[in-house]
Amino acid sequence: MNRERLFDKESPMVGAPLKQAHPNSVGAEVRQVSAATRKRGQRAGGAKPSLMARSARVVISATPWLIISGLLWAGVFIKPESVGGTVEPPVVERGDAFFGIAVADAKHLWAAGNYGKLIYSADGGATWTRQSLDTKTHMQDISAWDGKKLVAVGNGGAIFTTVDGGGSWSARSPDFLPKTNDKLLRVKAYSGGKAWAVGEMGALLFSGDYGNTWERRRDQQDTAFNDIAMVSDSAGWVVGEAGAMLSTKDGGSTWTVSQPVVKSSLMAVAFRDAENGVAVGLEGVILVTRDGGKTWNRATATSEGTPGAQVKLHFYDVAWDAANSRWLVVGDQGSYAASDAEAVTWKAGRLGPRELAWHTRITAGPAGFYVAGASLGEWSGRESGWRRLIADR
Description:
Elements: H1 23-46, H2 51-77, E1 98-103, E2 109-113, E3 118-121, E4 129-131, E5 139-144, E6 150-154, E7 159-162, E8 170-171, E9 184-190, E10 194-199, E11 204-207, E12 215-216, E13 225-230, E14 236-240, E15 245-248, E16 256-257, E17 266-271, E18 277-281, E19 286-289, E20 297-299, E21 301-303, E22 315-321, E23 326-331, E24 335-340, E25 346-350, E26 359-364, E27 369-373, E28 377-379, E29 386-388
Parallel strand pairs: 21-25
Antiparallel strand pairs: 1-2, 2-3, 3-4, 5-6, 6-7, 7-8, 9-10, 10-11, 11-12, 13-14, 14-15, 15-16, 17-18, 18-19, 19-20, 22-23, 23-24, 24-25, 26-27, 27-28, 28-29
């Protein structure tokens, strides 16, 4: 752009050119303005302000003080009141997982899970309420002697018992368990107030008084025990990581270590009588005994959807279905495996068409089985027999 055009009188950027004032004319103009200003001031000062004007000034000056006084009065004498009731969080929230489930009868159920959450149903799982445990640690399992007496175990050697159906829970953690790293992973309640609990660092605990006091039945070792099954008052089995298997014939006073059959961890064991038992574990492992544990033989589950395809998903629990003379296993990705009493041929499938959650417990109920894990459900043990007890959250 031409430099001279910036100062052209026709340019819209600068407007009309400025007139240059004569030096002598500036003083004259100032004197004229000052004289005019004095005249206006004299005329304005001659008239008194009206009553309305004075009142307006008083009101305007007092308004800030009136506002401040009103706020102070409200802060002292007006008390806020809540509107509506307290919003309670849902019993089961997104991210909740339940590692153990206890069934006292057809109506009364308990499920224990992460961050100390414990829920209870008095109507067979139709509705649930929360029970209070004085802990935020993960609870790994729960077992019931009856509808009033229960025991729950968890991380850090946590043990809780109740004698009123969960109305109140008492901590029973023994002093000999380190609180830093010992997880109690499984607990089983047996008749006469007996209970067994197993867990990390070779924890193998016994109680004979409904969980009030506990004693160690084996020295500490760097091995996690994942499950225990007492076949009778004298005979029992323990399974754990790296294929560990232990047995007792004297009620748990002494335990004999068996040679591992597999290298992967065994997660659960169950017996239907003194001779016939099944142990399951990671990578689809199924072990079967027909001679009271003298020998254990490997079995394989094959997929119903893909005949002949071996299932290698992790299996976490096994149960004997006495009413239908069959074995049932649950594990990863909504999977299950089933076999007849002989436990020779195993068929694997999925609990439900869209069930992909992992499950760590299967417990017999009056009309079927209850399953706990990333979801809670009731299962008949057959295809299309799965029902979630708590809807997706």
